[in-house]
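Tutorial sheet, problem 5. The two components below are modelled jointly, 601 residues in total.
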Amino acid sequence: MPVDGGGLSLTVNQTAPMPLRGSLTCQDGQLLALVGPSGAGKTSVLRVLAGLLQPASGRVVVGGQVWLDCAAGINLSPQQRRVGLVFQHYALMPHLTALDNVALALLHLPPPQRHHEARQWLQRVQLTGDLLLRRPAQLSGGQQQRVAVARALARAPRLLLLDEPFSAVDQLSRKGLYSLLADLRKDLSIPIVLVTHDLSEARMLADTLVVMDAGEVLQQGTPERLYRSPRNARVADLVGIQNRFHGQWLGPADQAGMGWLEWLPPPGAGAPGQRGVRLCVPDKGRLSVGQSVSWVIQGDGIHLSQPDASAQSPAAWPARMETVRHLGDLSLATVSLDDVPPVTLQLTLAGPQRQRWEEGQRVMLRLDPAWVHVMPTRSA
Amino acid sequence: MDTQALWLSFELATATLAVLLPLGLWAGRWLARARFTGKALLEAAVVLPLVLPPTVLGYYLLVALGGQSAIGAWVANVLGVQLTFSFAGLLVASVVFNIPFMVQPIQRAFESIPRDLAEAAQVSGLSAWQIFWRVELPLAWPGVLSACVLTFVHTLGEFGVVLMMGGNIPGETRTLAIAIYDKVQGFDLAGAHQMAGVLLVLSLVAVAASFFASARLVVKR
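Model answer (structure tokens):
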């Protein structure tokens, strides 16, 4: 049943046999990465999309065609969906050669054409020569993965699904496959969904991130948006934001669109009755006065200066450089704030200026309010 | 050498295989995939002929399929076939007695196929029949071959059930195993020795051939 619009949209809602709830969308030609801890439901979402798992309630529309609509009694079989799926361990047929594995997805064609096309797809993933006539056990992990990608693409899918495809290959093969995926994306104008637990991989490859936990879609957004404005503390944890802090919302400030946040040590970590420092930060009007909050700040919003240079600034606090580790072109540093012990910030220093910071040095810390994001406290 | 008994044993083994192979493929594959309450009980029932004394099984089959029983009377009236002391009865008994030899190796073979292969085939557009024919059967083939050889050889040497169900009618129900027993009873040890030797060599060759073929057929994963 065709409906308007391209891309992928999914809504799913079930509580048993396992919880699975949420929605996501992905435009044609875009890569969406599903991230979250083990058991978050990432692979289950992929299985719903492929038609290998029918949820209690849900709807899947791809390229304007309804693949699943539980309410309307529509559920296309995996065979009818035209989906390309690269399994985590590739699921190549061990008794077939690389060429026959790809030809298996082309059974609708006459046999000679089947092999001709399979050969072309394998060439496209840079697999040629006698490798085509080898069985999977005679190929390396990276080569097996290329066969799996070729097989997934051979049916001209309308949706490409990749289930942790990079987890079982070495670093070198992984880099080669990143570039292969980047090349394929230029030519494929279909939505691509990638399941991964590697956040740096997800950030590097994806246009959109979807964070899942305990079967629930917590947030969807561009990597930049997710890292800058996680919906809640759990999302911040799951996407690995290091500078996440505790605080209390004090209410609106005099300046429109701004509010007061008190930066506090985490519950149970500071001295009893300890007060923190007050920050004037952007306010979306969603928090109530006195509410316990989590807040994050990106490295771009953290500025360090010499103690004398910033002494005049009201929004700068005395701090101490705890650790500085020089790693190649970058240095990783932790800074502790005098007024909010035992809180430490982590930041990456780059450029020639990084060399002037040393462990134990006194510094002034200034936070750019524009990079501060405050959210309700919610944990696992 | 009682060649008539030898050929009858071959006929019975071939017919048992012909009936049991399709049944075993279906049941073995189904048991490998299905999850339901009472599966353990059903699997125990499949294995039962392996642990029951053949005379016990033969006795129950005699009671269940004899002319006095409902099944036996129905088969005799409708199909005109008597199931006791006949080749047809022997075949039924042999099929029942060989169920574990056929179903169990096939079930294990299908169980050893990773589930994601069938799913990969599904998303590659293969129908259920194509998945069975092009993916599952080639991978389960060593197990299927073992099941066939075990069933065939086991039928050749079957004694207790055959005797209970078929008696000892030359050309009809006297198999090689019964003929050997007859020879020993008649103190013809040379004749018994000859036939026992044939059975021993046949069984050894068949099992060794199946092991050799299985080792070659097993696909490295």
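Marking note: Chain A touches chain B at residues 50-52, 77-79, 81-85, 87, 89, 91-95, 104-105, 107-108, 135-137, 151, 154-155 (CB under 8 Å). Full credit if you identified this.
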